[in-house]
Amino acid sequence: MPLLTRDFDYHLPNERIAQQPLEPRDQSRLLLLDRADGSLRHARFTDLPDLLRPGDLLVGNDSRVIPARLAARKATGGALEILLLRPTEGDADRPPEDGAPSPATGRQWLCLIGGRVRAGTRFHLVAPAGVAAVDGAEGEVLTTYADGRRLVAFACDIGPLLDAWGSLPLPPYIHQRLERPERYQTVYADRAGSAAAPTAGLHFTPALLDRLAEAGIGWATVTLHVGLDTFKPVEVEDLTQHPIHREWVVLPQRTVNAIADCRQRGGRVIAVGTTTVRVLESAARAGAGSALSAYAGWTDLFLYPGASFLVVDALITNFHLPRSSLLMLVSAFAGKERIDEAYREAIQREYRFFSFGDAMLIL
Q: Of the residues 111, 135, 165, which one is the last residue of a structural domain?
């Protein structure tokens, strides 16, 4: 039987969508799902050191969100909103020959653009109030793609402009202004390049990371620069036909070593977020059955029910949108019926959903 996208739909009351993050971060609620027996328990994220075991290893995504939303105006006068996805070279679907593009710099970018544009459309960026204009803050749409992406060439390297000219691209379901933009970054964000935050990591605080270390729980990082699929729903009826666009991932050797040490001491590898899952599982598949190795490259790995997990033993994740590839991934990891029951429980008990919402720990 085909896997149908509609089977991953559910009704969520609007009031369950978190509009603001909690303070402090680690006071969010935490729903524990035990895959062994399907049982559910309720805790707080700050309880995490007591819920894990000494010898376990947490792996987080250290990508940092860039201020990728820019205001622009067409040469003919129409207003545009540009969301930078990633810099690219040549064809947007061909990786550069020398490896990853620089994550937040360059003249040619793959973008989403709000407003009517076609190839050849010229525009200039609009400086925020109080910010001086600069030469070269203009561009042209080179290519339009059927999925809504646009390939844009700017007249200058816009990377140095982003901090002053750009704003963080909050998800479309968040309608309130974020007073402190840093709250849409993890406290360990280090490598700029994402168009959206790896939100499972938003619950960690420096103090909580210290407590985890004191409890004998390890910490390591990977990188996945979050791209287009955060904003793109699964639209095909047969979800196996859903095309996932590639994202750049890095599994460093130090994290490979930390995973090997964790295995040796009998600990569990606990992925912080679905992005981390995709890095680890992509690297494992790239190894073609050999031991896990350091990896850097593009991934289009789509994990849905029936998929196997070669590295990840447990998962920390937020509650995901209906019909999303992320909901399909956690359903693959825990089992669809168990995730369905967990979501029903979370809605009934008034958990907060999506980016600024509460979390799950799937063991």
A: 165
Query: Do 157 and 212 share a domain, yes or no?
Result: no
Q: What is the CATH number of the domain that holds 276?
A: 3.40.1780.10
Q: Quick one: CA dihedral 11, 229, 325, 208, positive or negative?
A: negative
Structure confidence by residue, pLDDT tens digits, 340-351: 999 999 999 999
Beta strand 122-125 with 138-144 is antiparallel
Quick: pLDDT tens for 283-299. Answer: 999 976 668 999 999 89
Which residue range forms the structural domain that includes residue 103? 68-165
Angle at the Cα of 264 from the Cα atoms of 299 and 360, rounded to 5 degrees? 55
- Residues 156 and 276 placed together within one structural domain of the fold: no
Domain closes at, from 165, 188, 208: 165
d(CA 159, CA 109): 11
Q: Which residues contact 358 (CB under 8 A, 6 or more apart)?
A: 18, 28, 29, 30, 31, 45, 318, 319, 346, 351, 352
Please indicate, yes or no, whether residues 183 and 321 belong to a single structural domain of this protein. yes
Query: d(Cα 18, Cα 352) in Å, to the nearest integer?
Result: 5
Question: What does the pLDDT look like over 304-334, one tens digit per residue?
Answer: 999 999 999 999 999 999 999 999 999 999 9
pTM (2 d.p.): 0.92
Q: Omega of the bond prior to 181 within 30 degrees of 0, cis?
A: no
For residues 99 and 198, what is the distance between their CA atoms, to the nearest angstrom?
Answer: 23
- One domain, residues 203 and 236: yes
- Rounded to 5°, the CA angle 334-61-230 comes to 70
